[in-house]
Amino acid sequence: MAIAVKVQHRHWPDAPAEGVRIGDVLMCDVDYPRHAGIRRYFWLLTYGVQLVYEPFGWTGDWYVDIVSFARGRIDGVESTTVYDRELDIVVEGHGPGYRLIDMDELADALEHGKLSPADTARALRDAQTFLEAFLHRGAPFPPPPMERWFDAGHGYPPLPDVWHRGGPC
């Protein structure tokens, strides 16, 4: 069942984006100025990750942010606030090759009190869990729960019309 969700994120701080949650996958089509056109953002709520294919004008790679979520309600609608936990993964093509990046930013956030030791430990554990589930030892990538909603050419299948406007989020 598809559910309307308002997504609060650092890239669009003035107003939440209108997303769609199906099970533990939250999705939204975003026209962010640093991207070359609309990009579908995916959040795997169980894994604590945000995935975007070919962001920032890149070709053929995924950017995976390790994040945390706060769930609530805004004006009677389910909401999810996404918090960056500073650690990121660049997946080359559709895996299995990847690079773990921004470990220095994670260390700085811990050292300067932006992230607690518990938050930092959770970020490291979530990164490891994601890698084990989707990139190590022949694991499937992109992650199967979001695969039917993804298109490498950015001609994404329409999301369910939970906002009753007929357009993207």
Structural overview:
The structure is a single chain. The protein is globular. The chain has helices at 103-111, 117-134, 144-147; strands at residues 2-9, 12-22, 25-30, 39-44, 49-53, 61-74, 77-92, 98-101. It is an alpha+beta fold and 169 residues long. The model has no long low-confidence stretch (mean pLDDT 93). Helix content is 18%, strand content 41%. A 7-stranded mixed barrel has the order 1-2-3-4-5-6-7.
Q: Whole-Å distance between the termini?
A: 17 Å
Series of secondary-structure elements, N-terminal to C-terminal:
EEEEEEEEHHH
Query: How many runs of DSSP E, i.e. beta strands?
Result: 8
Instruction: State which percent range the strand residues make up.
Output: 35-45%
Chain-averaged pLDDT = 93
Rg over alpha carbons: 16 Å
Helix content: 10-25%
Judged by helices, strands and strand pairing, the structural class is alpha+beta
* Tally of individual helices: 3
Largest beta-sheet characterization = 7 strands, mixed, barrel
The rough form would be described as globular
Q: What labels describe this entry?
A:
169 residues; alpha+beta; seven-stranded mixed β-barrel; 18% helix; globular
